[in-house]
Design goal:
Blueprint (H helix, E strand, L loop, with lengths): L1 E6 L10 H9 L12 E6 L8 H14 L6 E5 L1 H4 L11 H10 L5 E3 L5 H8 L8
Parallel strand pairs: 1-2, 1-3, 3-4
The chain binds iron/sulfur cluster (2 copies).
Length: 132
């Protein structure tokens, strides 16, 4: 099993991705339930407007050479892509990226990674948009 985190190319200029990594290893946030041997990697969307096609083709080639089935891969859109947060509004191209993933045969897609308590409180208070 391989988890692939897609990060916003804009946000990673300001964020190291530490909390996504930590929550993966702690199986917190949207990573609950993965078996212990699950591996993970992260990559950025490649920039607006989310044209990750070339990266997906490269990944598919690597998986094929390693004998890893696409069914054993789960993509997570980082929470800063799919929810309003301290960095930005949700990505306007997320559904396009989702469609590209599906078109390339990657059907396991999860929305979210690290769940910020502060952002959740702001959602509850109506300051941030509800989770999409
Ligand atoms: S969800 Fe948070 S930690 Fe993960 S990439 Fe986005 S801003 Fe960084
Ligand atoms: S396409 Fe979305 S995720 Fe990628 S850089 Fe633009 S806003 Fe960020």
């Amino acid at each position: 099993m391989l988890v692939v985190i897609i990060q916003c190319d804009d946000v990673v200029k300001r964020c190291s991705g530490f909390l996504c990594m930590r929550d993966f290893y702690e199986r917190a946030g949207k990573f609950e339930g993965y078996p212990p041997e699950t591996r993970y990697m992260s990559m950025t969307c490649g920039g607006c407007c989310g044209n990750i096609t070339v990266k997906l083709e490269n990944l598919a080639m690597r998986l094929r050479k390693e004998g890893i089935s696409k069914d054993d891969v789960t993509f997570h859109f980082a929470s800063c892509i799919c929810s309003e947060n301290a960095h930005r509004l949700p990505c306007p191209f997320m559904n396009r990226m989702k469609a590209l993933l599906q078109h390339k045969g990657f059907g396991n897609i999860v929305l979210g990674t690290h769940i910020s308590k502060k952002a959740e409180a702001k959602r509850q208070a109506g300051i941030y948009r509800k989770w999409e």
